[in-house]
Design brief:
This protein is 44% helix and 14% strand. The protein is of the alpha+beta class and 358 residues long. The protein folds into three domains: 12-89, Arc Repressor Mutant, subunit A, CATH 1.10.10.10; 96-107 and 268-356, Aspartate Aminotransferase, domain 1, CATH 3.90.1150.10; 110-263, Aspartate Aminotransferase, domain 2 (3-Layer(aba) Sandwich). It has a five-stranded antiparallel sheet, with helices on both faces. Strands 11-12-15-14 form a four-stranded antiparallel sheet, covered by helices on one side. A two-stranded antiparallel sheet has the order 1-2. It is elongated.
């Protein structure tokens, strides 16, 4: 989507013309590629359709674009052929990235993370970073404080075990938990595994010795998304103490500990939770408007699902226009984590235009 400066004295149609012409001459638009329909472009930019038509006709008059009756406008001039453009596309950033994993929110304090990482590297070089058998002690101490304040879980650093991702965490824990209670292992959306006879909905650490809590920082501190942790009761801890499994990178763990110690940590958590909640609500609303329905919100994963679609085909068509999404079976999985709030509506509408309508 093109951004127009309505305070500029240059007419809006000339601004559109200039931007499309630059995309053609700089090979971001391939020869033979169809331009966004004037109706959709006008709607997403909040301007009149006549303004877009004026810009397109000026491009036609210069031989850069051709108007094919009842089909739309196509690049005719100096753009690269489609095959060469496809190779060039791999080297540039996508227009919209709605993939659900590995996305860093625009508001994430990357400079602060770099400072914490540099400090951790310095620690490793000067003193080494001490760990016990199950991860960095400094980070585990920070996690214990975090869980008590934000999750209501009372534990010590010795109760916490660090793992390389949630997959590794569950691969180690589930066999141990099943040995204690073979038929009673259940899970819920809050990160709890239960060894007892019934599933609880709230942590009761210190009272119920059958409760295991597992989680990651993937939805909070995205460069540390491979760090998973578990709070284990004594009977489960004893089962895995004799096991050998990989713990996360020491430098990243220590950087995360310093990140959590920063005075702005609580402000960051509060801002992130509000921001992501708002973005998910916008995504759901626009998906209902465009697709007619959704299959619900995953607030932990930061995604909205849209089922009943030819998801793989839609994803392929969208990728041809630099719009990246995830899908599973017949469901589109649209993530908001790496999106700006102001871009979500335009991204979903263009996804529908390119992916569904083709």
């Amino acid at each position: 989507m093109y951004i127009l400066d309505k305070n500029d004295t240059t007419p809006l149609y000339i601004q559109i013309y200039d931007k499309i012409k630059r995309d053609i001459t700089e090979n971001r638009l391939a020869r033979g590629e169809k331009l966004t329909s004037s109706r959709l472009l006008a709607k997403t930019m909040g301007i009149s359709r006549n303004t877009v038509e004026l810009a397109y006709e000026k491009l036609v008059s210069e031989g850069l674009v051709i108007n094919r009756a009842r089909k739309g406008y196509y690049v005719e001039g100096t753009g690269l052929p489609a095959a060469e453009k496809e190779a060039a596309r791999e080297k540039r950033r996508p227009l919209y990235d709605m993939r659900s994993y590995g996305r860093v929110p625009p508001s994430f304090p990357l400079m602060k993370w770099k400072q914490c990482l540099a400090k951790a590297i310095s620690d490793l070089a000067l003193f080494g970073i001490e760990t016990d058998n199950f991860g960095d002690a400094v980070l585990k101490n920070e996690i214990a404080g975090f869980l008590y304040k934000y999750r209501g879980i009372s534990c010590t650093a010795d109760d916490i075990y660090l793992f390389c991702g949630m997959g590794s965490c569950l691969n180690v824990l589930l066999p141990a938990v099943k040995k204690i209670s073979p038929k009673a292992v259940t899970e819920n959306d809050s990160g709890f595994l239960f060894c007892g006879d019934s599933e609880k909905t709230l942590p009761v650490r210190g009272k119920d010795k059958n409760t295991v809590y597992v989680n990651t920082f993937a939805d909070l501190v995205f460069p540390a998304e491979n760090i998973a942790y578990a709070v284990l009761p004594k009977q489960v801890g004893e089962k895995i103490n004799a096991l050998h499994f990989a713990t996360p990178d020491r430098v990243v763990c220590r950087a995360l500990a310093y990140f959590m110690q920063d005075k702005n940590w609580e402000r960051y958590l509060y801002r992130l939770s509000l921001e992501e909640r708002d973005k998910l609500d916008i995504m759901k609303s626009v998906c209902v408007e465009v697709f007619g329905h959704t299959d619900g919100i995953d607030r932990c994963g930061g995604t909205v699902a849209v089922g009943g679609t030819s998801a793989a085909l839609i994803a392929q068509r969208a990728a041809e226009h630099d719009i990246l999404i995830d899908f599973k079976d017949d469901r589109l999985i649209l993530g908001v984590r790496g999106m700006k709030k102001s871009d979500i509506a335009s991204a979903v509408r263009l996804l529908y235009e390119y992916g569904v309508k083709g």
